[in-house]
């Protein structure tokens, strides 16, 4: 899967203005007809993001890319019903404040889940990390591979401490790189 082909562009108001050439194929292959280009172009990216912490996380990524004019790149999980998949998200800023967000498949492996988050439903709120797919069970974040069953999906989405740390490290890299740019590229 090509990084540019499975990408989308948001304008300065975070409205989706275009998608890559493989967008619709990926949506249909993953049983998501509501995510095809005809259904997403013209809408705000926030219409597709679950959870206040996840929205705040992505808002921070988008704003930092715009302010620093540096790319942001991080690994994330996006599992399918019978597949564990690791993707790399890369965000490229443009001077007009639009951003290109591209996802590239890094690794995938067939998987047959056994544990389910539904088993903990009675005792815990099943909050899921939007980046690594771990579930918060009590005070711990646990990677449970869940089958495609509505009863086994998260009730809410957040970002686990490990994924926040990864993003903070990427932000630090962006700041360091920005500090070594020639003066003509710096914002005053």
Secondary-structure map:
Blueprint: E1 7-10, E2 16-19, H1 23-29, H2 37-40, H3 52-68, E3 72-77, E4 83-93, E5 99-110, E6 127-129, E7 135-137, E8 140-142, E9 156-158, H4 161-179
Parallel strand pairs: 6-9
Antiparallel strand pairs: 1-2, 1-5, 3-4, 4-5, 6-7, 7-8
Helix pairs in contact: 3-4
Question: Major sheet, described briefly?
Answer: 5 strands, antiparallel
| Residue share in β-strands | 25-35%
Give the overall shape. globular
Our Rg estimate from Cα atoms comes to: 18 Å
Class based on secondary structure composition and strand pairing:
alpha+beta
Count of runs of 4 or more consecutive helical residues? 4
SSE run: EEHHHEEEEEEEH
State the end-to-end CA separation. 39 Å
Low-pLDDT segments, ≥5 res: 146-152, 180-188
What does this structure look like?
It is a single chain. The protein has 188 residues and is of the alpha+beta class. It is built from 4 helices and 9 strands, in the order E-E-H-H-H-E-E-E-E-E-E-E-H. The strands form 2 sheets. It has a 5-stranded antiparallel beta sheet. It has a 4-stranded mixed beta sheet with strand order 8-7-6-9. The longest helix has 19 residues, at 161-179. The radius of gyration is 18 Å and the shape is globular. The termini are far apart. The model is unreliable at 146-152 and 180-188 (pLDDT under 50).
């Amino acid at each position: 899967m090509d990084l540019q082909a499975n990408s989308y562009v948001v304008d300065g108001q975070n409205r989706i203005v275009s998608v890559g050439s493989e967008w619709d194929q990926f949506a249909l292959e993953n049983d998501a007809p509501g995510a095809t280009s005809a259904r997403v172009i013209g809408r705000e990216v926030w219409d597709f993001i679950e959870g206040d912490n996840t929205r705040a996380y992505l808002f921070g990524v988008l704003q930092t890319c715009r302010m620093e004019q540096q790319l942001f790149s991080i690994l994330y999980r996006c599992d399918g019903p019978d597949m564990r998949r690791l993707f790399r998200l890369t965000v490229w800023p443009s001077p007009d404040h639009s951003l290109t967000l591209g996802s590239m498949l890094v690794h995938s492996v067939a998987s047959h889940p056994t544990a389910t988050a539904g088993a903990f439903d009675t005792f815990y709120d099943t909050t899921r990390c939007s980046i690594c797919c771990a579930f918060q069970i009590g005070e711990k974040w646990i990677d449970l591979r869940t089958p495609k069953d509505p009863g086994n999906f998260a009730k809410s989405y957040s970002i686990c401490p490990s994924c926040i740390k990864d993003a903070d490290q990427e932000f630090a890299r962006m700041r360091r790189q920005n500090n070594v740019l020639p003066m003509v590229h710096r914002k005053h």
